[in-house]
Structures are given as C-alpha cells and as structure tokens.
Design brief:
By secondary structure, this protein is mostly helical. The protein contains five helices and no strands. Helix 2 packs antiparallel against helix 3 and helix 3 (about 45-70) crosses helix 4.
C-alpha cells in the first residue's frame, strides 16, 4: 500500500473534502445574483439545475465517505441521514437567498434539483462504497 492509499484509508482527507465542498457550495449559493459565475458558451436550458444536482451529489458523496468511515456498521442509515440533512440544507439555502441575498429568490425547482442530486448519490452508493473502502 503506497502513501496516498494509506492516507485515504486513514480517513483524514475525507472530512477535509466534505468541508471544502460544503464551504464552496455555501459561497456559491450565497453570492448576489450579479456575482454568480456564468458559463456563456453552454446554452443548455436550466443548466443551473444540473449544477445544483451535481453539487448535492458531491456533497452527499463526500459526507458519506467521511461518516461511513467512522460508522461502518450503520452506513445505510448514515446515507439516508445525509440525504435528509443535505435536503434540509438545500431548502435552508433557498430561504436565505429569498430573505438575504440581493437578486436571488426562492426557487422550488432548485430544491427539486438538490434532492435529485441526493437521489443520484443514493443510486451510486454501491459504487461509492467500493471506492471509499
């Protein structure tokens, strides 16, 4: 086993990955509308919803890799708890955007996209479980 494998299996990088993605998502979701990065060369309808789903799939995956490392006997319960918490995070962000962020509003489709990302994680969990061990 090389050093990177040993480092991964030690579990030290996993909470760092989750924290990094969580902080980046929080920054992106709380930017004023005028400051949100735009990708002008991608002309896909509702592309922001794809981004939401991707962010939440990554958040759930990194949280799962971290927590299932420490609670391996309850990894299925951990997965569903993560989905519940991340869905709550997505709903909370929408309320924060509506109340506090200039140019942003509450969008139910963002919540649907966030939850879709969580479901993608659940469907991919067997693969994630193999990678994470």
């Amino acid at each position: 086993m090389n050093n990177s494998e040993r480092f991964w299996r030690s579990g030290l990088i996993k909470p760092t990955l989750f924290s990094l993605f969580f902080i980046i998502s929080l920054i992106l979701f709380t930017l004023p509308a005028s400051k949100v990065p735009r990708v002008y060369w991608i002309n896909i309808p509702h592309f922001d919803k794809i981004i939401h789903a991707g962010i939440f799939a990554v958040l759930c995956t990194t949280a799962y890799l971290w927590l299932s490392h420490y609670f391996s006997t309850a990894e299925k319960k951990i997965a569903f708890l993560i989905v519940l918490l991340m869905t709550g995070y997505g709903i909370g962000i929408e309320f924060i955007q509506a109340a506090l962020i200039e140019g942003r509003s509450f969008e139910i489709l963002d919540i649907v996209a966030d939850f879709t990302g969580c479901v993608i994680f659940l469907l991919a969990r067997p693969l994630v479980k193999r990678i994470g061990s």
